[in-house]
Amino acid sequence: MAMTGVLRPGHAQVRVLDLEEGIKFYRDVMGLVETGRDEHGRVYFKCWDERDHSSYIIREADQAGIDFFGFKVLDEATLDQLEADLQAYGIETRRMPAGDLLETGERVRFTLPSGHEMELYATKTACGNGMSMVNPAPWYDESEKGIAPLRLDHALLYGPNIAEVKKIFTDVLGFFLVERVIGEDGESEAAIWLSCSHKVHDIAFAEYPEPGKLHHCSFLMESWEKVLRAGDIMSMNDVAVDIGPTRHGITRGCTIYAWDPSGNRFETFMGGYQPYPDYEPLTWTFDNFAQGLDYPQRKLHETFLTVVS
Ligand SMILES: [Fe+2]
Question: Residue limits of the VOC domain (predicted)?
Answer without folding.
Answer: 8-123, 151-271
